[in-house]
Design goal:
single chain; 716 residues; mainly beta; lipopolysaccharide transport protein A fold; 27-stranded mixed beta barrel; 12-stranded antiparallel β-sheet; 2 helices; 60% strand; disordered N terminus
């Protein structure tokens, strides 16, 4: 009989105890008139001593209050003293996500104040804090003695082994209100060995995304700048706006300042980087590199790019990259259905030794409109491109251009799978130029020129498909033919945007190989080639393309060495082999039509697993008139990357100028990375010389303590 009544009596006792305990806990330290938060108590057994006002709960005890959850094996609540005592596997989950563990705690009824023994904390990012004991104040501040902080995982085989790095302190404070973790009399240990001491140190806890304050400084040395020290300060203006100011001092040059400004708007963002310094010759030098992108509505957006430097070599000398030119742009563009419109203005700054600022153009404006029509009854589409350009120089030719190109394309698939595309177009251009050198046999030409170019084209391809086992093969002859009147490129029309011609596999079947609008291909011509490809069921593929072009008459518009200057063009080819994830090979070439000598060669290969990945690249460009490649170029690039183990990896790269038979640069790095630390060592050498730039060596050491910051030293 008693065996049947005992569970009922225990349950009744638990209900009575909970009824007495919950109101007391809820009322604990509540302001007058404040609404009492709900309290949930669960336990395997509970008892209540009415005379002493003590409630005892044991066995899987859980107390939930104010988004806090307290778990323990044994809990005693003293109503008279408003004191909660918990022992055995105590854990407390905070609303912020932090979890506290302890062997023994004494807390007030609202769980906000008290003492804790053998405290351990897991922060929201997985970092850990441990201490002999501590005091909890107002539910937000935890002051601990003999504390340890580390985001590193403990060794699974030997948890008593020190983590990779940790910060120890005589006093450690974790504040949920200010979201700080601060240390007094603190030292940094790596593998249990002390390496640095500070009387005071603090950092934000993981809930802080960004906060104003000093960032870790960086140190370095340079062969021409001397010792360089940078001390950045981050200022958090608002949740969507911040700025980083980095003063720097160079022993052999004057001091300087770098500023980085970032702001996110409701419909866009802006990023600005700028620097200024005064060198040893009292010259003020600096640069700006900024961009902005803003949505006006679902159709329109606008933006800007501002790139400018006080002189040609400043950015390279002071470590802001190695640009060969700078482009500033202000633009707006619109997308709606099958229509696109853009208005651009451009300003350029050349950084090469032979660049002449007087002949560098300013584009104000350039307007583009493009339209593609809906498919008609037979699948045909109309298209139209409109371009308006105004280009001016302080010295040289000024150009204004209006161009319209309208066309119609209709596809057709034959009964045998042969595919045709018939295209027709009519293009008209009007140019107004000033000071065009050599125009129309004159020293300079000023006036208006126009041209009208009708064109008809036919593209044909006939794919043959064969499936055998797990491999599918495609053999496809391809031909494109175009007919247009001869001429179209008089001397009275300047060539601003079509000076660079690169005849290769990517534009073999195009109607025009010119990169811009100022030059057009004319006369009857045919492009032909063949493509073969094989595709495996596992995702591997191999493809080969070979082709050539033929025109009825030579066209002296194409420069000598372009591969298109004669009736019969050079041969272009491409081979790509990627049978699996361990091999990627690409080869592109242009062969002389007479003796098959290479005029251009490009080769890249990457092979091997992640544990040892090898890559190499080769590029050769033959001399071409009226191009930036007026001299031939031959260059090798190679790189090796190895994942030594789970944490260590290394990379090595070399650039070799085969034309000059000398190295251009090399780079070696050794990197360690785990869940709490990144250590990067890099050695680099450059052999470039340009005015006040000289060949240099650099050694970079970068240590990033995750959750604390990054420390960098550089030697040149």
């Amino acid at each position: 009989m008693m065996a049947r009544l005992l569970p009922s009596l225990l349950a009744a006792a638990g209900i009575v105890a909970a009824a007495l305990l919950l109101p007391a806990l809820a009322r604990a330290q509540q302001p007058a008139g404040a609404e009492e938060p709900p309290v949930l108590l669960r336990a395997d057994s509970m008892s209540y001593d009415r005379e002493l006002g003590v409630v005892t709960a044991s066995g899987h005890v859980e107390v939930s209050r104010n988004n806090q959850v307290l778990l323990t094996d044994h809990l005693i609540y003293n109503q008279r003293d408003d004191l909660v005592t918990a022992t055995g596997n105590v854990s407390l989950l905070e609303p912020e996500g932090n979890v506290f563990f302890a062997d023994y705690v004494e807390l007030t009824g609202d769980l906000k104040n008290g003492i804790v023994r053998d405290i351990r904390i897991i922060l929201t990012d997985g970092a850990r804090i441990a201490a002999n004991g501590g005091e909890r104040t107002d539910g937000t501040v935890h002051e601990m003695t003999k504390g340890v902080y580390s985001p590193c995982n403990l060794c699974s085989d030997d948890p008593t082994r020190p983590p990779l790095w940790q910060v120890k302190a005589v006093k450690l404070t974790q504040d949920n209100q200010t979201h700080d973790v601060s240390y007094e009399d603190a030292w940094l240990e790596i593998k249990g060995v002390p390496v640095a001491y500070t009387p005071y140190f603090s950092h934000p806890d993981p809930t802080v995304k960004k906060r104003s304050g000093l960032l870790p400084p960086s140190f370095g040395s340079s062969s021409d700048l001397g010792m360089v020290v940078r001390v950045p300060y981050f200022y958090n203006i608002s949740p969507s706006e911040d700025v980083t100011l980095t003063p720097f001092i160079a022993s052999d040059e004057g001091p300087g300042l770098i500023g980085d400004y970032r702001r996110h708007f409701q419909k866009g963002k802006a990023d600005v980087t700028a620097s200024i310094t005064q060198d040893s010759e009292s010259d003020v030098r600096g640069h700006i590199d900024s961009q902005g992108r803003f949505d006006i509505d679902n159709t329109w957006r606008w933006g800007f790019d501002a790139e400018r430097a006080t002189d040609d070599t400043y950015m390279r000398r002071y470590g802001f990259g190695s640009p060969q030119s700078l482009t500033s742009r202000l633009y707006t563009e619109a997308f709606r259905k099958r229509n696109y419109f853009a208005a651009n203005t451009y300003a350029f700054q050349g950084l090469q030794a032979d660049d002449d600022p007087g002949t560098t153009p300013v584009v104000l404006p350039m307007l583009d409109y493009r339209h593609v029509g809906e498919p008609g009854k037979f699948g045909g589409r109309t298209r139209m491109d409109v371009n308006v350009l105004s280009l001016a120089r302080s010295e040289g030719t000024d150009t204004r251009r209006f161009s319209v190109d309208a066309g119609y394309d209709i596809p057709y698939t034959g009964p045998l799978g042969d595919v045709y595309t018939l295209s027709t177009s009519l293009r008209g251009d009007i140019y107004q130029v000033n000071d065009l050198e050599g125009g129309d046999g004159e020293d300079t030409y000023n006036g208006v020129s126009e041209r009208l170019i009708p064109e008809i084209g036919l593209n044909w391809r006939f794919p043959f498909v064969r499936s055998e086992g797990r491999i599918v093969q495609i053999f496809e002859p391809i031909t494109s033919m175009f007919v247009s009147p001869y001429g179209g490129n008089p001397n009275t029309i300047p060539n601003e945007d079509s000076q660079e011609i690169e005849f290769d596999d990517t534009n073999l079947f195009d109607s025009s190989r010119f990169s811009g609008l100022d030059r057009v291909e004319s006369g009857p011509r045919v492009n032909y080639g063949v493509r073969w490809a094989a595709y495996g069921a596992g995702g591997g593929h191999t493809s080969v393309l070979v082709g050539q072009s033929y025109r009825l008459k030579k066209d002296d518009t194409f420069a000598e060495g372009s591969g298109l200057e004669d009736n019969l063009s050079d041969i272009v080819a491409r081979a790509q082999v990627s049978p699996n994830q361990y091999l990627d090979l690409l080869y592109r070439t242009r062969l002389d039509k007479e003796d098959f000598a290479p005029r251009r060669n490009e080769f890249t290969v990457s092979t091997g697993p992640r544990s040892l990945r090898l890559s190499a690249g080769y590029v050769f460009f033959d001399r071409q008139q009226e191009s930036e490649f007026t001299d031939s170029r031959e260059e090798w690039r190679s790189a090796v990357s190895a994942q030594i183990n789970r944490y260590w990896r290394t990379t090595t790269s070399v650039v070799y100028d085969a034309e000059e038979k000398e190295s251009r640069s090399y780079d070696m790095s050794l990197i360690y990375e785990d869940e709490c630390l990144i250590f990067d060592t890099r050695l680099a050498r450059t052999f470039y010389s340009d005015r006040d730039l000289v060949p240099s060596d650099s050694i970079i050491f970068r240590i990033m303590f995750k959750t604390l910051g990054e420390f960098t030293t550089t030697a040149y």
